[in-house]
Please model this.
Amino acid sequence: MLCDEFEARLNDVLDARQSPEQDLELQRHAHQCTACQAQLHALTCLLDGLELSEDPPLPDDFAWRIVEQACQNRRPFRPRAVQLAALAIAATLLLATLPFGWVVFGPSPQITGSARQIDAPPSDAVASAKPPETSIEDPDDSQSGWLVPSSSILELYPAEARQRHREQVTQLADDLRPIATPFNAAMAAIRRTIPQRSSSSKGQPRASLQPHRSTQNIS
Amino acid sequence: MTDNLRQLIRSCLAGDQQAMLDLVNRFKGQVFGLCYRMLGHREDAEDAAQEAFARALRNLHSWDSEREFEPWLLAIAGNRCRTALSRRMRRPPPRSLNEPVASRTPDLQAAKQLTEEVNLALSSLRDQYREAFILFHQHELSYAEIAEAMQCPIGTVRTWIHRARRELIRHLQAREVVETRYAV
Model:
C-alpha cells in the first residue's frame, strides 16, 4: 500500500464504522511508514477525545421551559390555502369596488381644486341645480379640499352630473356582468382547495401525522 | 422509527404537554450535544437547543412521518446553530470552550487535556465540516441522513467529513497532542 492509498483506505474503514486498529493492511503500512503511523495515532487520539468528551449538564427545568415557550407561541393551525383564499377575496373585492369608488369620490370634471369651485357649467344647469336659498359661503373655502360637509354635497352635485354618473355606474355594472361568471367559478375553485374539517375537531390542534409541506413551512 | 415515538409525536400534535416533555427529554442530549459542539459555548448552546425544540414542536405538523424524526430535529438544531454563528460574527469573539469535562479514565488531567484539544480542533473547522463530522461520528447518522439534515448531496457530505478528519488530524499534530500522548 502506498501513502496516498492509506488515507483513502482509512476513510473507507471509518465510513464503514469499523476500527482502523483491526484493519491489517492499515496496520501493516503504519508499521513501515512513520508519517502514516503518526496520522493513525492522531486519528485514534481524535476518536478517543470525542468519546471522552461529555456535554455539560442541562438545567432541570430545560424541557419544561421549552414546552412552556412552545405552548405560549402556539397559534391555531390555519392552512395556507385559507389564507390565500382570504387574500384573493379581499383583493378581488377591492378591485371590483375601485371603479365605483373612483366614480363617487374621484375627481369629477365638475369639481376641481376646491370643492366649491364649479367649472363653468351651462348656465341653465347651474340655475336648475343651485337652490336659491342655500348659502354656501365659507371663509376657509380654499382650505376645505374634499372634506365638504355632507349637506353641501347635493348642492354641488348638479342634476346633469348626477345623471351622467348614474349612467356611468349602469354602464360599469353592464361591463362587470360578463366577469361575474368566471369570478364565481374562480371562487368555487378556491373553496374546493380549502380542506374540510369536521365540526368535532374545530378549534383543536391537528392530530394528523400527514405532512403539510405544501401548506406550512418551517419558519 | 418505533411506534412508541410515533405515538409520542401524535400526542404532541394533540396538545399533550406531558408528551412534549417526554419528547424533549428523549432528544435533548442529541440536540444539546450538537449545539454545544457547534457553538462551543454552554449558554449559547442551551439557547440554540431551546429554540430548536420550540420550533420543532410548533412545526411538528410539517414533519414527514415517512422519514426519520432525529435527522429532521437535528436539521432544525443545525439551522439554529448556523444562525447563532452568523449572529456571533457581528459580536466580539466568545471565550473558548473551557467547560469542566468529566472523565472515565484514571488519568483525569490527560483526559481533560485531550478533550479540550479535540474541542479546540473542532472549533477551528468550517461550520459545515464540523456539523457533518459531529453528526457522523457523535450522532452516528448515516451519510443519507446527514445529507437530508444539511440539505446537500451525499457526495458533498462525504467530502466534508473526509476534509474534517484531515484537518482535525493536522490540527492535533500541529498542537503536538499526538506526540505527548503516544510519543510516536
Observations:
- The helical segments of chain A are 3-15, 24-32, 34-52, 62-72, 80-105, 123-129, 150-153, 159-193.
- Confidence is low (pLDDT under 50) at residues 110-121, 129-149, 198-219 of chain A.
